[in-house]
Amino acid sequence: EVQLVESGGGLVQPGGSLRLSCAASGFTFSSYAATWVRQAPGKGLEWVSHINSVDGSTEYADSVKGRFTISRDNAKNTLYLQMNSLKPEDRGAYYCAKSRTAWGHESDYWGQGTQVTVSS
Q1: End-to-end distance of the chain based on CA atoms, in angstroms?
Q2: pLDDT tens across 23-77, in order?
Q3: What pLDDT was estimated at residue 15?
Q4: Contact, 9 vs 18, CB < 8 A?
Q5: How many angstroms separate the CA atoms of 113 and 91, rounded?
Q6: What does residue 55 show for φ and ψ, rounded to 5 degrees?
Q7: Which of 38, 33, 53 is nearest to 89 (CA)?
Q8: Nearest-angstrom CA–CA distance, 26 and 98
């Protein structure tokens, strides 16, 4: 059974940092791309970042570029999102997702999410 479990969310002041983790199980994590998406209160899902499993290439939404870093540790079956210089508009539920392929963005499994609140 595929499982994705996010952790690391919480309350942080503007300008602060958080590192989100996504523990994967039930599939060969190293063989699939992965994505972080988020959902602010009352809004739709927003794609945040993507990393492939072939060469580790990464992509970022313009809204987080230069502040967030996606990475993966295939030995630990874990996906990460390092978030720096957090802004109030970064608040929301953050979800990790497994891609259908080693490269692609289309996801087939999602975690339950972890909440991020950015407030003074």
Answers
A1: 40
A2: 999 999 999 999 999 999 999 999 999 999 999 999 999 999 999 999 999 999 9
A3: 98
A4: yes
A5: 13
A6: -125, 5
A7: 38
A8: 11
